[in-house]
Write a structure and sequence with these properties.
Mean pLDDT: 91
Radius of gyration: 24 Å
CATH superfamily of the largest domain: MazG-like
CATH class of the largest domain: Mainly Alpha
Length: 263
């Protein structure tokens, strides 16, 4: 707790109107958002690399973002760091009655249902009698892949979902056929729409197969990067633009074989 208090004090000093840092003084809620997203992804990257020394540092960078937002809010009389910490503590206790109040859930499904119902009730309390949707609560700023998955999960909880993966496989194939047809129509807007529908369906399939699409795609990105860099190393000073496609295909297959054997 001592270091937490120190962080809050440092943040206040950085934001001091006379003696603070000019860059920190220029920031507002909106300007911090890109940095917050970047720090969150750097935390994820450190976890994926299992670099726990880096993870500690990246978590500190992410915590700084929380302290920064809280300082801005405190200056405007909205809330402070203690309010942020107190709010999440209250929420955790409220949503875990099986831990803190002796409530018993028979299954994980019952526990998950209680969690989701708690979120709905909390939202009702904040919004009063305003109409709400089963899809409420999904941030528009989320990456599209994550947003698609969250939309589908919320729709599924409202019973709008397939019961097994087979129809979802068929849906992906249907969307791919529609994309092929759009590609032959010379209508760029239609092609873009069909690409989006295909991606949305692939996310749905991943969800039904219990695969996190964001993590799966990140893993494929890393795999592609490793193989591409292997090709670059093999080519040395020679540029890929100087190579025949057949040679690049051969190098790609070699990269797949060698790197797969190393894992």
């Amino acid at each position: 707790m001592r270091q937490t208090a120190r962080l809050i004090e440092i943040m206040a000093r950085l934001r001091h109107p006379e003696d603070g840092c000019p860059w920190d003084l220029r920031q507002d809620f909106g300007s911090l958002v890109p940095f917050t997203l970047e720090e969150a992804y750097e935390v994820a990257d450190a976890v994926e690399r299992r670099d726990f020394i880096d993870l500690q540092e990246e978590l500190g960078d992410l915590l700084l973002q929380v302290a920064f937002y809280a300082r801005l809010a405190e200056e405007q009389g909205l809330f402070d760091f203690e309010g942020v910490a107190g709010g999440i503590c209250d929420k955790l206790v409220r949503r875990h009655p099986h831990v803190f109040e002796g409530m018993v859930f028979g299954t994980d499904a019952e526990r998950q249902s209680f969690w989701e119902n708690s979120k709905v009730e909390e939202k009702k309390e904040r919004s009063g009698d305003l109409p709400h949707s089963a899809l409420d609560g999904i941030a528009a700023s989320l990456p599209a892949l994550m947003q698609a998955e969250k939309l589908q999960k919320k729709a599924a909880r409202a019973s709008f979902d397939w019961t097994d993966p087979e129809p979802v496989f068929a849906k992906v194939e249907e969307e791919l056929r529609e994309l092929r047809a759009a590609y032959g129509s010379d209508q760029p807007a239609r092609v873009a729409e069909e690409v989006g529908d295909l991606l949305f369906s692939v996310v749905n399939l991943a969800r039904h197969l219990a695969v996190d699409p964001e993590m799966a795609l990140r893993a494929s990105n890393r795999k592609f990067t490793d193989r591409f860099r292997y090709m670059e190393r093999r080519l040395g000073a020679r540029a890929m633009t100087e190579c025949e496609p057949e040679m690049l295909d051969t190098l790609w297959e070699e990269a797949k074989r060698i790197l797969s054997a190393q894992r």
